Amino acid sequence: MTVTASLPSWTRRSSDLSKHSAEVFAEAEDHPVTVTRRDGEALVLMSQREADGRARLLDFAAQLITVTLDDRGSLAERMSKAFPWMLALSPADRESCAQDLVDAARASFSTDQPHLAIAELTSWKETAAAVAAGLGSADVEWLDDDAAETVERP
Fold first, then answer.
1. pLDDT of residue 7
2. 67 FRET partner, CA 20 to 30 A, in 3, 21, 23, 27?
């Protein structure tokens, strides 16, 4: 059994939607809600954020499938073709990025949590943008925790 099969499903009758719409809409903000109907196929009510996350995950999956179908070069080299921003990373970071993205995609699909892969993709893309802007070459000055002054909340 996969993890997604064990996730709870939220189902409401169409009459709940008309009688308790605020309640059903509040639920749909947190998770997709299946609305069953006697006169037709069940419908799924979800937030735009949820729908966008699923669409982005499917787009990401399509790119990963394209990468895996190409057999020329390493995984990092193939992924750099699909995600050109990876070229801003060092070769070692490209390897790490490629594996992290595949792992995050597997986790997203197996748990039905699109944000896992999207967050990993966004994180690596932002890192590549920072490196391309020259932020990766600056010396970092770490603050000593003992010397840090605690500031009270306003």
1. 44
2. 3
